[in-house]
Structure prediction request, 1015 residues.
Amino acid sequence: MRIRSLDIWRNFLCMVFCLSMAFLPENLAAQVVTGAIIGQVRDTSGAMIPGATITVSNQETGFAETGISDSRGLYNFRALPVGDYWIQVNAQGFGSLRQGPLALSSTQQAEVNLTLSPGSVQQTVEVNSAAEFLQTQEGAVKSQVTQTQVENLPLNGRNPTALVLLGPSTSIALQASGGSSLGFTINGQNQNGSSLRLDGIDTSIGTDPGMYFGSLNFNLNGTSIDAIQEFDIQTSNYSADSKGSSGYVNVVTKSGTNQWHLDVYDYFRNGAMDALNYFSTSKGSSRGLKQNDFGGTLLGPIFKNKMFYMVSYEGQRILLPYPGYANVLTAAFRATVDPRLQPFLDATPLPTSAVAGNTDIGIYQNTVQQNTRQDLGTARIDYIFSPKDRVFTRYVINDGVVSGAAPGQGASNNGNTIFPGYNFEEPIRHQTAIVDWTHVFSTSLLNDAKVGLNRYWEHRLRGDSDIFNLPVISVPGVSLNGGGNQKNWGVTEGELDDKATWVRGKSTLSFGMSYQYWVSGLNQFSVATISYPTLAAFAADQASALSNGLGLAGSEPGEHIRDGQWAAYVQEDFRWTPNLTINLGLRYDTFGVMADSEHHAINVQDGPFSPFRGPNQPLYDRNNDFSPRVGFAWKVLPDFVLRGGFGLFYGARASGQAGDILVYNQVGSYSITNADLPGLTYPFPPEVYQFAAQSPGRGVMNPFAKDLYTEQWNLTVQQQLGQSTTLEIGYVGNHQVHMQGAYQPNVYSPLLGSRPNPNFGSVKWIDDADTGWYNSLQLTFRHRLSHNIAWDTFYSWSHATGLETNSQEVTAAVGYAGGEIQTFANKNFNRYAMPFDTRHQFTNDLTYFLPRFAGSNAFMQNALGGWSTSGILKASTGLPFNLTTGGDSGDGTFTQWPDLIPGVSAYLDHSPARGFLNPAAFAVPSEVDRNTGLVLGHILSNSIHMPAVLTLDWDLAKRLYTRDRFGVDFRGEFFNILNHPVFALPITNLSAANFGQSQSASDPREIQLMLKLSF
Prediction:
């Protein structure tokens, strides 16, 4: 979205920014994880009371701050630690007022207006009321998962990142094999642009926010659920101190208090209690699961009112049967295969069941064992040096290993991961640490500084000795054994942040700077991939392509990528009137230029075919990114607020995308097609490798590409209904510009009879030409805990359109959805819905506590009291995907899409397991495109959708009270209690015999039991 006033705001805010930085001493930086209490002091007639003394105090830690109301009766407390507060106000000629408790959350600006009655200061009135829940001070779109939700909602696997999905604007990014999800997207945006932080410090890996510790079916990541105070999600138009182009997520850990508190727990699961997986044929194949999740949390004082600690440990042990399916060749067909391919046939098992009407392909079914061990520890210390100085430090270590069976891969089956003898092992360690210091210079000026460390390491081994050195065999619709991979990867990231807040009358100014430096070390080995276009070509050993991104040797020297990023910002929240606040911000980001200390990574001077830059030259040009932001919050009525805003939000290039693509050039990656060298067969003659050396491929980036940015806008109304309930309706939209896309500009051209540049093989070109649009209507109906009940209801209607070929997501989409890109000859041909386009989404979570019966005897308390129940209901339209014909459009990629026959429904009234797509609705295209010489299908990109999804997770809990502070909790958790399967994406190859059929599904109904002892 472009508006004429954008340049005016850029120039104006740039001037404000420069002047502010010139007068600021050394108090500069990033988003803090504290809240604010603001408001106005008036008398019973409505007149303002200046000079009133206000004290806010945290009842759990003894922390307190005191301030004076200004000439307009306004007061403002910033950078308050998360917790429950009471507010005490005294003024000459008026009685004292004590109001609370107020549950203050991170990034919250709670407005509490205080009314004093005439009288003596010695007369104190206590008001038990919290602040209103209206968001009256900023135009941002945000939501928050409270401690009540964190502690009580059922979370399968106890994965904290699942809490991100409790909102109207967040959804899974892609659907994978087994019905599981890959990451999350916020407001239909590129998932690499989101910022995931723990206590305000980056906890993602390198510059890839989408790469979390849970990427290999590890459940625990970030920190333990029991160590979390709250989960803050900002989705649109957040302030300039927040990093990220597509969302800001911050997890706040608990701190200790003046009271000791200990929880010890064990969550137990056994597959014998679960329902059968939809595709299981016997109880023994799916009910061998054994899972224990155990640990505890201890918090309390070291010195009362001064120093506090929190320590948490959580361990998880999982023995998981991994049932899977793979299409394999029948014995009859194997008899027709060229004998030179016998090693692959020997390593591949025969079918265990037949496919009706197909004598070439059968189904191999097997259950293998996956072993997961994970240990997660968190420690935090808070120290209040004085009313002016507070420090906390926190350390997390997450250690785990997956061995045995690998997580499933592929659109419709698990490939060779379920074949006998396949070996997989991957240990991972992730550590994060932070030291945060808040100093109050005066009641109007404070500073928050932090230093953080984020370190990640993994080692991966796939394939056993029998198959490790065999090439990977790719044949449409069939799995064959072969291929190995070994990888060592480590990332270390340091971060320095500093932020100053200066309150001057109606204006609150925030100034900040941050610096991040990360280094990444990587080396790996990978075998080549041989592609055959059809079964007949495989039988005759007539390959269509041979490729390896790691060159002829199949390995790369150590990669040592490093990068430094820094940012500065200024944010002003101006309270124009008591009912209207204007937010103005300007952020400056420079994401640095990745470099390789060993000078292996190189990039081109100009275009994809131009000469390489010298080893000491920058890989690409540095960008200076200025992002202005403006918002408002207008309290139209005492219980009604209108909010809105517009801004630019920049994001970094993904390190996994840029680092890997550039380092491939050091090893001469290659991709040879049958058009390049006719007669490709296995084993390969020497001229194949000679051709690869003479015509290597390359992976390069546009050296002049711009950084991804998002234009975001929203208009929202919020109505308070009673003391604890709010209703919010809003329009949220964005326009993503300069998204990085992966293209292949050197595929075979039928018009030329060769590649566009015959001096090169396959070329992977990273450019900034992808764009996207997102428009949504979002509804939030929230009831904070009151009268023993709390709930959140979210609904969104949205549409995400555009073109996204981000290498991470294209890899996933091709593997799972059957071909995200049909042709690179005309990128706009692929433009329509995004792969994560979710039109309708409904989420509801509920927590209800039955009365405790505190006044009754012990029997009544324990028999009838202490019960609670909670649940999460999710419903959404299915995710979109693409189809292929199994044929070649003429460029050697074999990603041709079909045509959609007008007037014929694409769907059958069948379940995905039986085949819900109608083959009669699609046709193999035959018309040659005159501009490209290709035979292209004209079905719209991502226009086919999976069926709607409905899941319900529920729990029932009981607390036994033995003493005032000692309790025993029992809980039964029922995941997918309705036993509705979420099917994997189906076989998308139109020529396959089982086209349109899903061959795996998500987990069935699962039961988990919990015992917790609390003190």
The longest helix spans residues 6-23. The chain is about 5% helix and 45% strand. The first strand starts at residue 35 and ends at 43. Confidence is low (pLDDT under 50) at residues 1-31, 175-182, 207-215, 807-819.
